[in-house]
């Protein structure tokens, strides 16, 4: 006998409730996803705006520093021009500073364009930001910043009048001599150059360079004030952004600092040994770059050590070196004298060591102190130092 097929009675009420529930769940998912997407876009929009506004503020700060430098240099150059017939009474430091200002260092001035590249490479930037006035301001700023960079590198108003070749000839002609001897070599050189129309022109247009930098500062500051207003960016948001991008590693403390650390700079290795009693020892053993001078060629080997004290000042590590403890040795075995120049080489080595010792004595009298913003990585094996000039150095822990 055939078995009859039976069908389970469907509870249509439960079925429709299930279908409706699923539909509502899908709708809610789409709504939530849409809200999250809009919120993420809004966050991206705000972060992009803050990034660009900070970039403009940072550029203004760089131009302000350049203006301050130009103001100092212009004052010094005008002074030396008035003293061109009496350079014998001008201090050594002033003479070398003037020479450095007038000499072409062959290094071009440039702004950091990394934020500009991020802004221009983001295909969604225009859609996300939406505010056309803000976008127009940003494009205008980046256009004029590029023009300012090119002008400062190419305009005759900015080109330093003493060529790098002339400067190097003066240095090589003097060789390693005393300050007094080098000052005596600079004086006639500068006296001749201060008669040169190109040098006089560079000095006289210092006020024009100042005016140009002032115009850039005023224009870009006003432009960015408008940007902050258009996008509703607060000072607190900018401060939080700066803190976030500058945050590296974890704060340094006593237990993380103690021990032996090594800093490598090119071929030079500096070693620091930090002790629990707040003292430290510094040592470096290096060879100078190969040099060819009037009576020798080769590399001079130098060993230097001294001690000092360390302390924490907020987020900074303060080092107070005791240069009275300096131990300096000079090894000339890597130097090869020119023919019949051994005595001159020996005299130069002795003079080099004596002048180096004297320079440390002068620093000891001044009571030099250095502070670095310091942090360590999560492994506590790498340390970062940021100096007052913004230069960053890294140290590695040396395990015994």
Helix/strand order, N-terminal first: HHHHHHHHHHEHEEEEEEEEHEEE
* Sheet with the most strands: spatial strand order: 2-3-4-7-8-10-11-12
Average the pLDDT over all residues and give the rounded result. Answer: 83
Count of DSSP strands: 12
Apparent shape: flat
The separation of the N and C termini measures 92 Å
Helix content: 40-55%
Largest sheet: 8 strands, antiparallel, barrel
Q: SS-based structural class?
A: alpha+beta
Count of discrete alpha- or pi-helical segments spanning 4 or more residues: 12
Radius of gyration (Å): 32 Å
What low-confidence regions span 5 or more consecutive residues with pLDDT below 50? 31-38
Provide the β-strand percentage band.
15-25%
Count of discrete domains: 2
Structural account:
The protein has 400 residues and is an alpha+beta fold. The chain folds into two domains: 44-246, no CATH class; 251-397. The protein is 55% helix and 20% strand. It has twelve helices and twelve strands. It has helices at 12-82, 92-102, 114-121, 125-129, 132-154, 164-174, 179-193, 197-204, 206-231, 235-246, 254-257, 342-366; strands at 250-251, 259-265, 268-274, 279-287, 291-292, 296-298, 301-313, 316-331, 335-337, 370-376, 382-386, 392-397. The strands form two sheets. It has an eight-stranded antiparallel barrel with strand order 2-3-4-7-8-10-11-12. Strands 5-6-9 form a three-stranded antiparallel beta sheet, with helices on one face. Helix 1 packs across helix 2 (92-102), helix 2 packs across helix 7 (179-193) and helix 5 (132-154) packs antiparallel against helix 9 (206-231). The longest helix has 71 residues, at 12-82. The protein is flat. The chain starts with 11 loop residues before the first helix and ends with a strand. Mean pLDDT is 83; it is low at 31-38.
